[in-house]
Every structure is written in C-alpha cells, then in structure tokens.
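Hi all, posting the design record for the shared folder.

TITLE: backbone redesign
STEP: 1 of 1
STRUCTURE INPUT:
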C-alpha cells in the first residue's frame, strides 16, 4: 500500500515543491520514496512495502517507455504474471504484484488489463510514446484517487491534502454545492471534492489525458449492472457463496509481512476470520471495545476468537479519546466527513499496527448480502403510493426546527418520514441523511447561493434502478454511493494514517459476482437480513453472533460524557463550524 502524487508541466527549479506535496502522504508510505521526471512529468511514490520488500519492488517502475506508480494490491497477480511470462515472454525484475500492471498494459492495453485484474488499486501510467497519461481506480472504489485539471495541467494524488499543498489552499475555490451535499449525505459525493476543478475518480473508471491536445476522457470499465449473473440452483447457492468468499480470503492472505484481522463481533468480520482460520495456523485478531457496556460488541468478538482459536487483542474507546481525537476528522479526510466512527476505527488500526502491517476486514458484506436494517423497509420506502399525510409536513417541520424541548423536536423529526411523498427522499431519511427541511441546512443554502430548486438527493437518484426488486434496489444504491464514499473512505484514511493496509475479501470481483448472482429471496433466506450467510455459517460460528441485531460501533452511546459529541447537536454543523470554520464562514 502506498501514496502516489504527480503532475504535468514540471519546472525543474520547482521540484522541491513537488516533493513537499508528495511527502504529505508519508503516512501512506513510510518505508521509502522515489520519483521520476520523464518528459517534464513528475511521478512520485511513497512506499509501504508489502510484497517484494527488496529495492526491485520500488516505484516508479518503467519498461518500454511506459512508467507506472500505483497504490494498492493485485490479488490475482500470480496468474497474470504466469500468462505474461508464458505467452509474451516477459522477464520480470521483481516479485511484486505492481509489475504485472506495467507489462499488462504494454501487452494488453488498458481496457483488457483492467478487465483481467482483480484487486484494490489507484494507478497512474505515463505512456511516453503515445504522449498520454492514464489514471485508473479499482472496480469498487476501495482505494482513492484525486485529480485536478487547472491551467491546462493535470495533477493527481492519493489524498486531497497533496493537491492542497501543491496548489496552495488559498488558490483553490471551495465548491459550495459540495459543502451543501455534505449536509445531506455526511460525505461529499463522488466525483465532487471540497474544491472546484479537483475531483475524485469514480470507481470502475479510467481517465486518459492527451498531453498533445490536453483533452481528458473518462471511461467506465466495470459496472455492477453489467455483471453476467450465473445460474445458481437453490440447492447449490450456499456452497457457491462460501467458495467465492473462501477463495477471496485465500488470495488476499498473500503477503511478505505479517497479516492480521479486524474482528468486530459482527457477522462479516467473523466469517472472514473463520475462513482464514482454515488457511493459516494462527490468527491475530483486533477489536475495539465501547466504554458503554450496554452496546459493547467486544464480548462477541472474543467469543468468535475463542471458537476459531485466534489470538485476541482489544482496547476500549471512550469519551476522552473521542474528544481528544475529534480534530483528526479534518487531518484524515481533508474535506468534511461526518462518520465519527472513523475515530474508533483509527484506534483499532493503531492497535493492529503494533503487531501487523496488513489486516483483512469484513467491509462490503452488508451491501452485497443485505445487512442494513433499513433494507427491511425497502418495500415501503420505494412504494409509489402517495402519502396521505403530506399536508402535515409544514407543521411537522416547524415543530422539528423550533420546538422548545428536544424530545418534542426529535418526535417531530421521526414523524416527518410519514409525510414524505418522494421515495428517494424517504431513502435519504432512512440512510440518516439531513433533509432539505433542516433549519441549519436551509439557512446555509440561502447565505451561500444554493438555488432553491437544487436537487438535494441527486446522488441517490443517479444510481436508483427502479427495475430492481425493492431490497436489491436499496443494495444497488448503497453499493454505488455509501459504500465507497463513506465506509471504504473511512477505513482507508483511518488505516493509512498509521501505515496499515486493509484488505476487503467481500469486494473481490468474484465475491461480488457471486452475491449478485443469487436471487434476492436467497440472499434474504427465510426473510432474514443476510439469511444465506447465516445459514452457511450457523454450524461453525456462535448463534449469539449470527442472530443478534446489527449494531455497528455506537459512538453516540458515549456522547453523554463527551464535550464534542453532544448528541443534541447536528453532526454537519459540528464538523463545519469546529473543523472547517473558514469554509463555514466563507
């Protein structure tokens, strides 16, 4: 895992400025750094050594006039390496997975390469003979890639902070619509960033920049909608699913440094740990506990560790840590990000990094197999029947925003759902989004020139597919929005802040295809969330883990003792006023 930064139009006397931008990513690659400057293009790389720890694995790599930097891991690299060796006579100089991307591009071209590769990555290729730069991001958006296009020059980086350093924050214009979107989604939706002219590359896309014409073109190479579903008999579905997960875990155990496992006490991480226990002799698991014992999941994690015979390591997250670490939400994410569970996530990452350099996680299982509680309400949420209580909305909103007592305001806020006539607005509410009727949000919009007919829910509408059955429709939206913009972003920044690589077996291409091939009624076998996973593993994992209500890390439970996490306050307001005051006051 690494950090990458680069740009066109390099002026040699300004190279120290380029280096300083690269070094904002030292946490992503603490082991070493290197750069190349072919044809006035700066290609910088900070390395976290995982495979081939020797100097042969360092980047940038080059062959045949093509230069490569990449952040990530390619899980099927051994198969692709063999094919390149046997069919194309490639002589590799390293044992790293990254080198297959270089030679794969040369022999197959970018589209064929991306079609063959399974992994998590953000890559940059400079093809000197063709005078073009290619940026590509993995199919699910596990690894981040930002790019800027200003003054006819292209720049790119693993994190926004590198581009802030390169351009200078005062020279970047805040995108007011992106800030407003944050108030809705609690993240800035892709491809937007905090700044105009700086973007996130979308998952499953590659971008080509022609140095001669300065023309930029973005293409999608992978799509959940285009997956060919396999015909799976009901009697074979469980074995089909388990084999796909087991194979993904086996592939992702390959490493030249120690590997561990996050174990939350939930279904998904428990499954990953169980499958890994069948592949390696001794597991090291890492858990973050909650100071509020009423919602502490650590006992369930310990239970799983004991069942599979794993080493168990844990620490407790409390209100003092929450208060002290609150500013990290800006340090990690560089733009407004509202999932405060990022802070306990970083604590468990620090715990793991004391013993290992790589961990496997259970992320993606909820979106693929239906784990979120609001999926139960999908039929109601997406119903085309009009609400009979829309006439009450103005009254309910007034109570919500101006009630003298917090308890009354909260009741009105909950009741507002019953007055919503737009299915996508109901979905936004179910996801915990901030509706357009929120007083703080409306006031900010008016002061900052957000037009009244701005569609607050455009991002959800972009990925809504009414042709799908209700629960699958809900999963489809989550996969294309919340998963990479919130869940994967949270874990990437929290882990890379301490130089820890996180891998996600559920999001291998084959595991995604397997989940998507199983009919909805099988995914929700017996009408249960993750029904098929529960049935597969109920004979090997504790029932107390599989059949309890999904919880997640309840940061709110410690807020009663936290100065910064006063749960009577609006999360977007806290983030903007306390961490981004210059944006809020602009």
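Okay, here is what came back for every position:
SEQUENCE:
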């Amino acid at each position: 895992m690494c950090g990458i930064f680069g740009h066109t139009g390099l002026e040699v006397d300004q190279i120290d400025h380029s280096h300083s931008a690269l070094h904002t990513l030292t946490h992503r690659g603490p082991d070493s750094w290197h750069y190349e400057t072919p044809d006035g293009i700066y290609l910088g790389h900070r390395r976290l050594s995982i495979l081939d720890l020797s100097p042969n694995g360092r980047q940038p790599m080059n062959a045949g006039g093509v230069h490569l930097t990449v952040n990530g891991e390619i899980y099927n690299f051994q198969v692709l390496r063999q094919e390149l060796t046997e069919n194309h006579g490639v002589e590799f100089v390293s044992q790293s997975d990254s080198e297959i991307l270089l030679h794969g591009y040369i022999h197959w071209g970018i589209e064929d390469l991306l079609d063959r590769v399974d992994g998590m990555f953000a890559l940059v290729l400079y093809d000197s003979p063709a005078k073009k730069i290619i940026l590509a991001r993995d199919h699910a958006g596990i690894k981040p890639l930002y790019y800027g296009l200003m003054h006819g020059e292209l720049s790119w980086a693993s994190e926004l902070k590198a581009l802030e350093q390169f351009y200078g924050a005062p020279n970047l214009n805040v995108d007011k619509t992106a800030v407003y979107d944050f108030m809705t989604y609690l993240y800035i939706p892709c491809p937007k960033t905090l700044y105009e002219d700086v973007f996130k590359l979308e998952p499953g896309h590659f971008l080509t920049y022609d140095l001669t014409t300065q023309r930029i073109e973005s293409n999608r190479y992978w799509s959940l909608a285009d997956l060919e579903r396999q015909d799976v008999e009901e009697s074979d579905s469980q074995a089909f699913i388990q084999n796909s997960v087991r194979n993904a875990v086996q592939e992702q155990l390959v490493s030249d440094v120690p590997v561990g496992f996050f174990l939350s006490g939930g279904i998904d991480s428990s499954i990953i740990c169980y499958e890994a226990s069948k592949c390696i002799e001794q597991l090291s698991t890492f858990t973050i506990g909650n100071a509020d014992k009423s919602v502490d999941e650590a006992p369930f994690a310990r239970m799983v560790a004991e069942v599979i015979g794993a080493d168990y390591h844990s620490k407790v997250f409390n209100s003092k840590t929450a208060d002290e670490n609150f500013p990290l939400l800006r340090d990690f994410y560089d733009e407004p990000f509202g999932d405060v569970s990022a802070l306990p996530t970083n604590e468990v990452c620090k715990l793991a990094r004391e013993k290992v350099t790589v961990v496997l996680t259970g992320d993606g299982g909820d979106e693929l197999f239906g784990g979120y509680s609001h999926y139960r309400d999908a039929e109601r949420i997406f119903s085309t029947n009009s609400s009979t209580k829309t006439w009450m909305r103005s009254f309910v909103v007034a109570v919500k925003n101006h009630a003298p007592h917090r308890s009354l305001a909260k009741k009105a806020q909950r009741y507002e759902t019953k007055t919503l006539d737009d299915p996508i607005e109901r979905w936004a509410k179910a996801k915990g989004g901030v509706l357009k009727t929120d007083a703080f949000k409306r006031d900010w919009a008016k002061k900052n020139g957000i037009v009244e007919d701005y569609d607050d829910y455009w991002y959800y509408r972009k990925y809504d597919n009414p042709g799908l059955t209700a629960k699958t429709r809900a999963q489809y939206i989550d996969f294309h929005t919340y998963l990479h913009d919130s869940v994967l972003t949270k874990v990437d920044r929290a882990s890379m802040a301490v130089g820890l690589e996180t891998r996600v077996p559920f999001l291998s291409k084959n595991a995604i295809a397997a989940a998507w091939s199983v009919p909805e009624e099988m995914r929700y076998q017996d009408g249960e969330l993750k029904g098929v996973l529960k049935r597969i593993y109920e004979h090997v994992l504790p029932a107390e883990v599989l059949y309890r209500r999904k919880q997640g890390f309840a940061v709110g439970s410690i807020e009663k003792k936290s100065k910064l996490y006063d749960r009577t306050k609006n999360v977007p307001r806290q983030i903007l006023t306390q961490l981004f005051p210059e944006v809020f006051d602009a």
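COMMENT: The mean pLDDT is 90.
Let me know if anyone wants the other runs.
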